[in-house]
Design a protein that fits this description.
Layout lengths: L1 H22 L2 H21 L8 H14 L5 H67 L1 H23 L6 H32 L4 E5 H15 L4 E6 L4 E5 L1 H18 L8 E9 L3 E8 L27 H11 L3 E6 L5 E8 L5
Parallel strand pairs: 2-4
Antiparallel strand pairs: 1-3, 4-5, 5-7, 6-7
Helix pairs in contact: 1-2, 1-3, 2-4, 3-4, 4-6, 4-9, 5-6, 7-8, 8-9
Length: 357
């Protein structure tokens, strides 16, 4: 409906400009040609007119031909015969340039997202390395914990011995010293345990709790406008919370990449419906499924790891699934691809489960 309204409006506007050329004097008509061309070029750029979708351009040509019947002189007809094809060429040229600019902008956005995902992954790895180093040091010095425990036991035995069999020294003074020693050793042990806890928590420092439902709704609205022929459906509970490295922005980027790939396919036969579903998976995970009815993955795409800059889609960089996988791995999750027997592709993402609000 929106496309039909845009087509009718553009055709009427073109006819209006062309009729002005026909009804004006020859010099005035030549001046109005510039208006006609500017309007045509602006509409071509706005509606992304290309050879694949040339309807608005054909409307401009038909408007010029319709105004040709109103031309009173041969000079007016010559002007309309010249300006009509020029308007079509201008619409196609500016529309093509706009599409190319959109494509380059999308590629830059995907490249930036891939870099951000790689940075998040490296941050997670660095935190894991620091944690492993700390726990390794504490593990190699396990005898320190043994000595602390031994000293604690000896201190307790000393307190009991002094309480039962006082010697020449002042029992109260010895008891106080032993109790101080016991308290100090206990504090050392508590600090060791706290250091272990801090090291483990550091590995999760980059993770944030994100509610899945509103982010998925935003992605559907955005990509639904870009792919009006694809029915994007959502199915999931409103209170499911995932733990994602990079927070809400990272989850939005992850879903955008998966849903966009499902909508676009390999550039030929594409999907007509995409379903995004999510649910909590016991004991502590969230599963997100993105399923489409497109051609599915090629067999070679399902073998091995996802590599960047490899794609069969015209004009693409091959960073979509690569970026998505990096986001998932940075969050400590898992991404699995497969084809379904009924036809189409299925991408399954498992993320840690966050705290419920």
């Amino acid at each position: 409906v929106t496309g039909a309204v845009a087509l009718l409006f553009a055709a009427w506007l073109h006819f209006f400009c062309a009729s002005l050329i026909a009804f004006c004097s020859v010099p005035g008509g030549a001046v109005l040609c510039a208006v006609f061309l500017v309007v045509a070029g602006g509409l071509g750029h706005l509606h992304r007119v290309t050879l694949r979708e040339p309807f608005l351009a054909l409307g401009a040509l038909l408007a010029a031909l319709a105004a040709l019947a109103l031309a009173p002189t041969r000079e007016h007809r010559v002007i309309l015969l010249v300006v009509g094809p020029l308007a079509v060429l201008g619409m196609l040229l500016l529309g093509h340039l706009a599409v190319r600019a959109d494509l380059l902008r999308a590629q830059v956005t995907r490249l930036r997202a891939a870099i951000q995902a790689q940075v998040l992954l490296e941050q997670g790895r660095e935190a894991e390395r620091l944690t492993g180093t700390l726990e390794g040091v504490l593990g190699r010095n396990h005898d320190v914990s043994n000595m602390v425990m031994s000293a604690a036991l000896n201190s307790e035995a000393l307190v009991r011995l002094l309480a039962a069999e006082p010697g020449k020294q002042d029992p109260a003074e010895l008891r106080e010293i032993a109790q101080d020693l016991l308290s100090s050793l206990r504090r050392i042990k508590a600090q060791v345990e706290d250091a272990k806890r801090v090291g483990r928590e550091r590995a999760r420092a980059v993770l944030h709790d994100v509610v899945v439902a509103p982010v998925a709704e935003e992605v559907r609205e955005q990509l639904g406008a870009q792919h009006p022929r694809v029915d994007i459906m959502l199915r999931g509970e409103d209170d499911v919370v995932a733990c994602v490295a990079g927070g809400e922005e990272a989850l939005r980027g992850l879903l955008e990449e998966l849903v966009r790939n499902a909508c676009e396919g390999a550039g030929g036969f594409v999907a007509t419906s995409v379903e995004v579903s999510w649910h909590a998976q016991p004991p502590a995970a969230v599963k997100i499924l993105v399923r489409d009815n497109g051609p599915g993955f090629r067999p070679e795409e399902l073998e091995g790891v996802i590599t960047p800059l490899e794609t069969t889609k015209p004009g693409a960089l091959g960073l979509g699934l690569y970026t998505a996988e990096k986001r998932v791995r940075a969050s400590g999750g898992l991404l699995v691809r497969r084809n379904v027997p009924e036809g189409g592709a299925l991408v399954e993402v498992v993320l840690p489960r966050g705290q419920q609000a």
